[in-house]
Amino acid sequence: RCVLKELESLGKALYGAKLIAQRFQLRNCSHHKDPVSGSACLLSMIEEGNPHHFFIATQDQDLANKVKKKAGIPLLFIIQNTMVLDKPSPKSLAFVQKLQMNQLVPEHQKESIVQLKEKEGLAKQEGAKRRKRKRAGGPNPLSCLKKKKKKTQEGQEPSAEKKKRRKRKRNR
């Protein structure tokens, strides 16, 4: 409601924006009798962790920067007649990561797991890492195949100029 009041007060220049804003569902804010600016009203509605899961759509850079400082609030803006959903802010990403870690294992259970591991002697020992030894393998099976004799044309014998191939002995 505060945004609509602000659009009315700005006059005919923003009449189209006022018509678009009127199409959307209105949320009741705590500023019924004394409306505040639109950005202040939007910030007050998302103040306590955004319980209604609002998206903020704005072209105002000051409002966008204030919204980015809060975790879990999606931000929309317009670039060349296209609505764009802004990438999550670093604050939102850190909040989600912290939330996921806490959901997997509660803090008191983490502490009890560490204590039980120490009691049983299963704690990680840094100096006890062993390397796995590589064992010598046999020869490549493809290299052990017998050579195929080349077919020669009938009536011709292989030329004497061809050198005999000597077999190499492998040292093992």
Automatic annotation (TrEMBL):
Organism superkingdom: Eukaryota
Positions of transmembrane segments: none
Principal cellular location given in the protein's record: nucleus
Pfam families reported in the protein's UniProt record: Fcf1, UTP23_sensor
GO cellular component term of the entry, any: small-subunit processome
Disordered: annotated segments: 110-172
Chain intervals with Basic residues compositional bias: 162-172
GO biological process: rRNA processing
UTP23 sensor motif region domain ranges (all copies): 130-149
Subcellular location: Nucleus, Nucleolus
Keyword Nucleus appears in the UniProt entry: yes
Family, similarity comment: Belongs to the UTP23/FCF1 family. UTP23 subfamily.
The protein's name in its UniProt record: UTP23 protein
Organism: Burhinus bistriatus
Annotated gene: Utp23
